[in-house]
């Protein structure tokens, strides 16, 4: 008589193999993969050096998403100043807890430097956290990238790109390709000597050869932009 696997076992069986960026070993595996699938990228990786992406311990998804909302469409220094102001004025030095944000009026949030849209987004984030709708780090470890994206983009002000950055830089997921990211598209055009930026669809299609290390490939696309800028400045001296 055939036995039926438990729901947890069934779920584990259908989840994709979610690789994580975990230091030198992952870098070596990615480089070998790129050498087989994309010689140009492999050559750039060897010239530039190892990718430092790795999961961040102690991640609090709620705090990370709050920071992402504040940083949207702002230069780094300006965003950091507002982020610090929100923590100082509303959270006693830490990102404010959901009950604090939900108790704040619009004027109080605006006084901390937030735009009206960002204030509303942070309060929606707080409602999701209060209601247990934001997965914990332990729960995220059992979710695929797409499942995490689907859950978190239900929050006002959180789009796919924001969650993809969280997957790459905080969770250390190795196979995320943010095809809408301007820097990744620009780096691709520079590295592969294209006259125009690839469309998201073109980048997604080309990037299939990088799987399951598309996060690492994306990191090198960003570095290609940095190298081009540095070379341009050097040429002007």
Characterise the protein shown here.
Helices cover 63% and strands 0% of the residues. With 237 residues, the chain is mainly α. The chain has 2 domains: 100 residues, Endonuclease Iii, domain 2 (Orthogonal Bundle); 109 residues, Hypothetical protein, domain 2 (Endonuclease III, domain 1), CATH 1.10.340. α3 packs across α14.
Structure characteristics:
237 residues, Endonuclease Iii, domain 2, Endonuclease III, domain 1, 2 domains, globular
Biggest sheet, in brief? none
CATH architecture grouping of the largest domain: Orthogonal Bundle
What proportion of the residues is helical, as a percent range? 55-70%
Give the CATH topology of the largest domain: Endonuclease III, domain 1
Shape: globular
Q: Which sequence of SSEs, written as H and E, runs from N to C?
A: HHHHHHHHHHHHHH
CATH structural class of the largest domain: Mainly Alpha
**Please, how many domains?**
2
The total beta strand count reads 0
Write out the CATH superfamily name of the largest domain: Hypothetical protein, domain 2
Helical/strand content category? mainly alpha
Approximately how much beta-strand content do the residues carry?
under 5%
Average pLDDT confidence is 89
Radius of gyration from CA coordinates = 20 Å
**Alpha-carbon distance between the two ends:** 78 Å
Low-confidence stretches: 1-17
Number of helices: 14
